């Protein structure tokens, strides 16, 4: 019976369903409440009525109709807008989630379903010992990939049992402040920088961590590739539109998993979303480096990114190297000389310069005297109705522009044409075996892109001019400290390609237990016989077989970054005023408008020239303003416009990072740049 004092005009009944495991106890409870009762009071009343003795500290109220958590316990029901028709669910905030990692391994762990995804990913990365969690996010599998998986499961005669690494006992994933696992903010080396094995001094960390030594090995090392049959059954994008579908499922970083319809024990993909890998260090990043390597490897095998046959064989050689190296015991690799460590450190410094354009240990150059290049090159201009016109000219590269003259003597006068490369697209057009060293320049003009090819005579000339073009496209000159490392990086990549010049004899392909079909995409397994592929991979292998294990992975990542399509995430959009759909490529430093039919770039806009961007949430339109009164607006057709908005804001946020921050992130700034005002 309800007393008359309780049964006032202001009180009403609230239905709450409790998520508990006690079958003999009811799950639905009616609470008599008033609008001025705070959320904490509702939970207290509920627990008293349930009469089950257990720890309720991880429980919170979930409002089913509004799809939101009621986490502000001091707010009243009136302030939250909760009335008698509300259906509340009293459930745990941490739930089990299956995550498919970049190496295609699945882990099962407890994740906060009430924290925003940005925070949830940070907690996941602490469990998995991956630094720089801001580079990763959670992705829902595309519908096409799911359909292919269901078809494969249906055709399979035996039931598919997925090998899942269970990390559910993790103190971090339970929401408790426990052992940090292998994630260390101190500068104590956690991994051997050559082999990637856990450093002996830190093995004791494993006792409290969900990452046992064996589990760490699964995450930090590459394992033998899947069979060609398995590869054929995996989803492979065929067109740009297919590639756009891959990027449609990114979760909103500013909302929780539960708010986005993710249920307990669902499977999501954990992937590197932003292609700016900051501060890679083998001493702390064995898992991170391996997962980046694996994401690159699968992107190449499944043809999510295009590469030439020559490049595919280099990637295959580096993969074959890993598998052979792993057949050796990891203990044999634990003891390495200092010179090898220095080589890896040198490779890393070059890699960092490539990624962030940071300073190297070289002496500072005199920026008052900007260097210039002057040389004989051949100019190629494509013509629609005739063969390409190839003519030799005297070229001069200064600041961010290229000028060309009839010959060296006429360079004192005015040039035939001056090309400003700031904001242009630079694409390598190289075939080392055929001695072809070309640079394709797509230069922005009023009505699209002006296409120009430069042909160099040899590797050294190509490396110098290519590096200058890459820097100029970013608005930098050859006086920049990253110029010489860029030249060195290009030359080292060309050296890997130049296996035909290797003096070492190629081993007999039949004497090595290698399935070449596992290391290349299906296109090449159809084109060549197994023995032909094996022989060509072993030829390329001669140039990489002397590298330490971690350096080989870093070289693979570096080669991946050299591909023209690297770091591009595609979306189908409709630009304001246009009558047809276009493709938009989002990269770490620019946006590219691409012809959806031909795949040719139309226009490029750099983030460095961007003044502001905003979203009209009512019509779901993204509007961006650039320097020189250039403005664009588009609606996104293949995904929610919030995803593109978050990509732009996320890349700008990542560009603010510095090593002085000691890994602390300004999470508020991230949400300010990416959250939007829906």
From TrEMBL:
CDD domains: FERM_B-lobe, FERM_C_fermitin, FERM_F0_KIND1, FERM_F1_KIND1, PH_fermitin. The keyword Magnesium does not apply. GO terms for cellular component: focal adhesion. Belongs to the kindlin family. It comes from the Eukaryota. The keyword Membrane does not apply. SMART domains: B41, PH. Residues 378-474 form the PH domain. It comes from Pygoscelis papua (Gentoo penguin). This is FERM1 protein. Keywords: Cell adhesion. GO terms for biological process: cell-matrix adhesion; integrin-mediated signaling pathway.
